[in-house]
Amino acid sequence: MIVNLSRLGKSGTGMWQYSIKFLTALREIADVDAIICSKVHADYFEKLGYAVVTVPNIVSNTSKTSRLRPLVWYVYSLLACAEGFN
User: Fold this and answer.
1) What predicted TM-score, i.e. pTM, was given to this entire model?
2) Which domain holds residue 51?
3) Model pLDDT for residues 16-34, shown as the tens digit of each residue
4) Per residue, what are the HEC states of the chain?
């Protein structure tokens, strides 16, 4: 299982704490193969022993919302798939 936490930010603690506790509970009942996260969170999840797939900050945890975000994600996913997520 791959868990997408790319939109997770640390501004405010509610969602961060909930997500970390949920991930810990999930790991007890299922194999979590990797975490998709922003580059700023990669070290944190690697220290917990997860394999990490990072996404650029433009599609991850920014405080700004944009109507273009779904389009940016779509283009990013096409480019990443074409390159094999390297």
Assistant:
1) 0.66
2) 2-83
3) 888 889 899 998 998 888 8
4) CEEECCCCCCCCCHHHHHHHHHHHHHHHHCCCCEEEEEHHHHHHHHHCCCEEEEECHHHCCCCCCCCCHHHHHHHHHHHHHHHCCC
